[in-house]
Amino acid sequence: VLVADALVLDVPTAAAPRSMHHYLLGLAVMSLLLTRDEPPWLHLGLPLLMAVSYLVLAVSPYGVPSALALPESIRLPGAWINTTLALAGLAGAVHTLQADLARRDSLQAELSHALLAGEMVLHYQAQVAAQTQVVGAEALVRWQHPKRGLVPPGEFIPLAERSGLMLPLGDWVLRTACRTLVTWSQQAETANLRLAVNVSASQFAQPDFVAKVQQIVQQTGARPDRLELELTESMLASDLEDIITKMLALKAQGICFSLDDFGTGFSSLTYLRRLPLDKLKIDQSFVRSMLTSPKDAAIAQAVITLGHSLKLEVIAEGVETQDQRQQLASMGCGTCQGYLFGRPVPLA
Ligand code: C2E
Ligand code: MG
Ligand code: MG
User: Least enclosed by CB within 10 Å: which of 12, 224, 256, 329?
Assistant: First the structure.
């Protein structure tokens, strides 16, 4: 708003031309940088909008007719200051963009050998029923980077997706998770634990996804009925028939499916109606604000009721406090995952 105001009040005159619009160039570069993981309409649209505004303001004398122009004695030095600062801003933004690109390039190069170098690790977060009983875990990948330390998936999964590394990474995660299931099956206390694995959209879209999963399960000797695959709604936008066929083929082997982050995407009831799901995971955002926002509490309650009426298991994600756990329990959701019970930790 401030920028828009300034642009409107910055009425060009013959002696002191408009200058505020120069800031738009730096802002356009910055927005290109800040929206890099956003969809193309935003990532390209925002800088484009700024570039077009720049163009219009640069070539036309347009100004709000009723706007009071500042006295020339202020506007003349102002034009110098604005243009200089805007140029400095542009230089800074370009420098940041360049540094970011370089960092990404090196991160991508490092990522492609991280798998071979054995730098990927799986952490496991407990899923707990009836307050104390661990019924399973979710496998969450981390990158044990030699210099950067433990890199969370949010930082390298989008990169892996863009660079085609998600498929080998996803295979590795699944194989490692299956090996863990085999280890667990050898001890009575852990033999019945279920292990959930996140599946990415590109992985699931592969024509040979079903065969790949079957192959990994067979090769490792894991019990398929202990394996759970987590899907997210964002990956379901494509061919629903194909998704259902794949799910049914895997379910025939005993593998089960959960819908991750439920409530954040389209939350389409069609998915619930048509997909052969076993479980809904209530997204952590609802759990977080459940105690303070009656709306979020109502949504959580509705999701739990809906899930149960569809004969689905319901689990709450991101449970951090006893109060949250109690409220969820009173709403009928006894199964939870979150820091209250344990953070994601190495297998040992
Ligand atoms: P997600 O599947 O929804 O996983 C839950 C995330 O919430 C995890 O973050 C977990 O550490 C975090 N979390 C768990 N309990 C709590 C809590 O009580 N409070 C808070 N604030 N956070 C909690 P993480 O490990 O950083 O994973 C982020 C996302 O990365 C995952 O979200 C998942 O979408 C993706 N991801 C992780 N591992 C894999 C993988 O192997 N394959 C694929 N495709 N995606 C993965
Ligand atoms: Mg998950
Ligand atoms: Mg989730």
Answer: 329
Task: Please say whether the dihedral angle defined by the alpha carbons of residues 225, 267, 40 and 152, taken in this order, is positive or negative.
Answer: negative
Distance 37 CA to ligand 2 centre (A): 20
Residue 263: per-residue pLDDT: 84
Residues 6+ apart with CB under 8 A from 306: 272
Burial 157-195 (b: 16+ CB within 10 A, else e): bebbbeeebbbebbbbbbbbbbbbbeebbeeeeeeebbb
Ligand 1 atom with least separation from CA of 152? 26
* Dihedral sign for Cα atoms in the order 177, 180, 186, 192: negative
**Which residue is closest in CA terms to ligand 1's atom 11?**
344
Q: What is the pTM of this model?
A: 0.79
Cβ < 6 Å from ligand 1: which residues? 125, 140-141, 152-154, 157, 170, 173, 198-200, 260-261, 284, 317-320, 338-339, 344
243 alpha carbon – ligand 3 mean position (Å): 20
> What is the Cα–Cα distance from 205 to 60, expressed in whole angstroms?
50
Q: Which residues of the chain have pLDDT under 50?
A: none
